Amino acid sequence: MFPDMKFSIRAANVEDCKDMLRMIMELAEYEKLAEHVKITQSDLEQDGFSKNPLFHGLIAEVPERHKTKEGQTKIGYALYFYTYSSFSGRAVYMEDLYVMPEFRGEGIGKALMSKVAQLGLTAGCNELNFTILNWNKSSLDFYHSLGCYDITTTMGYHCMRCEGEALEHLAQP
Amino acid sequence: MFPDMKFSIRAANVEDCKDMLRMIMELAEYEKLAEHVKITQSDLEQDGFSKNPLFHGLIAEVPERHKTKEGQTKIGYALYFYTYSSFSGRAVYMEDLYVMPEFRGEGIGKALMSKVAQLGLTAGCNELNFTILNWNKSSLDFYHSLGCYDITTTMGYHCMRCEGEALEHLAQP
Fold first, then answer.
1. CA count, 13 A, side-chain hemisphere, B127
2. Are residues A83 and A24 in the same domain?
């Protein structure tokens, strides 16, 4: 599609929050979950870029000559943080991986995820974990091609959540 | 079973790591996953109780008169940490919740989880997340009774993992 496509991957900074929020919304729309997005640009700025950040980000950028018709050069991102497994210790969790549709097939998603893997290994992690929607076959194929496996299917791990009134009620002593 | 059962819930400290490891192993054996436990007491001491802890723990204790025949008074634990949702912001993740079999049915598990919920809400979290093995019907019933729901079943979220050689390979630039 772009035979001369060049892109760069770098750590996100606070000036990227506007584009991160735009792409979080694009990803949520693709996932048919846009109504679940409650987060704001200000949340991202505070939670990711103050003294004790709650997450880390990576931004994929293309040169000006490949910018979108809306003028965007920030065309992909990954959002990740460190977690802990009581079986195997330090782990890295990739909350989001996204590349704008017109820039797919150029290795940008793999480059973003590779960087998360590098950073995780450097930080002493033994696992990279993430979730996927089971109908998202193209993403499943992509992740399987990288050697990832589905621990819901193979081992029976299901994701559970408590939120809203149930969480408030549970928290009553 | 113990009509006068009293128990206390408190934050774990570094002296609890031996008992935490014992109970992690008991939980893994119950889950038929004991061969996956690679963690050591020293890992727990360093990762949970140095300057920037990677996890937090809660310990459930019973009085001496209820100690086990092996002399244990630390009879349950929860292990949790904070994560981040790009949809809804701060979240708390409960990695483990465990009560020794002979002390179940006394409200100890619920008290541990309630404390995780309280701490999460105080820290500004909107969600408490965890995973469960789909064959563990008694735990599923317990969590459902607390208003938790299965986002694998309702929304299709599957847990994915990259580890070992696949992770090393992915990390190559």
1. 19
2. yes
Torsion angles phi and psi, residue A75, rounded to 5? -120, 5
Which of B114, B120, B143 is the closest to A173 by Cβ?
B114
pLDDT tens-place string over residues B67-120: 999 999 999 999 999 999 999 999 999 999 999 999 999 999 999 999 999 999
Say how far apart CA A55 and CA A94 lie, in whole Å.
10
Residues of A marked active site are found at: 143
pLDDT tens-place string over residues B41-67: 999 999 999 998 999 999 999 999 999
Residue A35 sits at the chain B interface (C-beta within 8 Å) = no
Residues B142, B100: one domain? no
Q: Are B135 and A157 in contact (CB under 8 A)?
A: no
Question: Are B144 and B83 found together in one domain?
Answer: no
Q: State the best of A39, A92, A159 to mutate against chain B, taking most chain B CBs within 10 Å.
A: A159
The pLDDT tens digits for A99-108 are 999 999 999 9
